[in-house]
Amino acid sequence: MSGIAKTPEPPYYAVIFASQRTEGDRGYGIMADKMVELAYQQEGFLGVESARDEGLGITVSYWESLEAIKNWKEHSAHKIAQDRGKAEWYAIFSLRVCKVERHSFFEM
Fold first, then answer.
1. Is-cis flag, bond preceding 8, omega within 30?
2. Which helix (H) or strand (E) element contains residue 12?
3. pTM more than 0.85
4. Which residue range(s) make up the domain with 22?
5. Quick one: 64 exposed, middle or buried, by C-beta within 10 A (0-12, 13-18, 19+)?
6. What is the CATH number of the domain that holds 74?
7. Which of 3, 15, 49, 62 is the most buried if burial means most Cβ atoms within 10 Å?
């Protein structure tokens, strides 16, 4: 999970997940890697971008449709990760779903 996601022409959707972690890993890194791997297998998944510093993490995942986002939210393994996130990994988080109507890319 590195670099800028190569998304198709709009419209599509972005799910923006911003978080502040609790102290310690407690399996977070392994679960995060598993969730990205699993997301790539989901119908309608277009890509992901993620960055984290000592305090704030932001992950943006891209999806073809609201239905694809709903299916991901309800995926059984993802539900386990969500529950652990609330119980162990996040001090605070926000989730925003946006429709992308325009994009542009620059590459040297």
1. no
2. strand 12-21
3. yes
4. 12-100
5. middle
6. 3.30.70.100
7. 62
Of 90, 71, 74, nearest to 32 by C-alpha is 90
Q: How far apart are CA 97 and CA 66, in angstroms?
A: 9
> CA 98 → CA 41, 50, 83, 102, 104, distances in Å?
22, 16, 23, 12, 16
Number of domains in the chain: 1
Structure tokens at 74: 């309800």
User: Is residue 81, in this structure, part of any structural domain at all?
Assistant: yes
Which helix or strand (DSSP H or E) is residue 77 part of? helix 76-84
- Is 78 inside any structural domain? yes
